[in-house]
Amino acid sequence: MKKKLLITICLIILVSLLFILFVNLEKKQLKTEVNDYLLQNGYKTSDIMSINTFFGRMPFFSARVVFTDEENVEYFYLKDSGEIKQFSTPLVNGSRNYNDKNQDFKHLEK
């Protein structure tokens, strides 16, 4: 009985560690791919203030990008069908409220 319990606990720990490893690798890969996408589309490394990746509900993995010339605006990217795409309305000052659709965002992809 104790042996089965020990095996079950070890399996749970192993699966948990593998899941954490998978999530971290996917986040790191998405960050690299978003950075490469931005550089291929004419941005310089100095134009990008930060790229942070997240694991969430839907999409499961996304990246939040802040550009140096628009520090108060967050742009969101995801990988869809093998391509990096910008999605969602940019957010201002970390607000979770959608912004005025008429506002001009410097890095909004059409």
From TrEMBL:
<feature type="transmembrane region" description="Helical">
    <location>
        <begin position="6"/>
        <end position="25"/>
    </location>
</feature>
<keyword id="KW-0812">Transmembrane</keyword>
<protein>
    <recommendedName>
        <fullName>DUF3139 domain-containing protein</fullName>
    </recommendedName>
</protein>
<dbReference type="Pfam" id="PF11337">
    <property type="entry name" value="DUF3139"/>
</dbReference>
<keyword id="KW-0472">Membrane</keyword>
<dbReference type="InterPro" id="IPR021486">
    <property type="entry name" value="DUF3139"/>
</dbReference>
<keyword id="KW-1133">Transmembrane helix</keyword>
